[in-house]
Design brief:
Elements: E1 5-16, E2 19-25, E3 32-34, E4 37-39, H1 46-58, E5 61-63, E6 66-75, E7 80-89, E8 91-93, E9 104-109, H2 110-113, H3 120-126, E10 135-141, E11 145-152
Parallel strand pairs: 1-7, 6-10
Antiparallel strand pairs: 1-2, 1-4, 2-3, 2-9, 5-8, 6-7, 10-11
């Protein structure tokens, strides 16, 4: 199994009343409105990585993260597994950055967010952040998405 590539990311859905904080990312292959987050640096914990990424991308400091689930991309041919740890919180402090590095920040009404340009992967899990329980999403990937399996756990 050592020849399989693993990468880990975090995503944090930050809620303020009936709105969530999304960034409008407009570069590389990950364009669209997405929650803040990013790669987990070794050897930091997943929660520490999530808190750090939110601070770097938004200027906010988040607390009391609730683990919501895992979403992953698996490429059996390319022997790669990319795993995202998804969190939710409504506990944050600070001011938004004036010039955020990943894209413009927007407070968006939850019931209007999925009408925005958004990656299908984010759209698939968006509502799951606000449901009871946790989730697992596995996307089989081989030159594009082949199969998406969504489980509520």
């Amino acid at each position: 199994m050592s020849d399989i590539r693993y990468k880990f990311w975090t995503v944090v859905m930050i809620q303020d009343g009936d709105r969530v904080l999304l960034l409008d990312r407009q570069y590389d292959d990950f364009k669209g409105f997405i929650p803040p987050g990013g790669r987990v640096d070794f050897p930091e914990s997943f929660v520490d990585g999530a808190v750090r990424e939110v601070k770097e991308e938004t200027g906010l400091t988040v607390h009391n993260l609730v683990f919501k689930g895992i979403s992953e991309f698996v490429n059996p041919v390319g022997k790669a597994r990319y795993i995202m740890f998804n969190y939710w919180t409504d506990d944050f402090k600070g001011e938004l950055l004036e010039n955020p590095p990943e894209g413009e920040l927007h407070w968006v009404k939850i019931d209007e967010a999925k009408a925005l340009p958004m990656q299908e992967d984010i759209r698939n899990r968006f509502d799951l952040f606000f449901e009871q329980g946790t989730f697992e999403i596995q996307t089989q990937w081989e030159n594009g998405p082949k199969e998406v399996i969504i489980k509520r756990t």
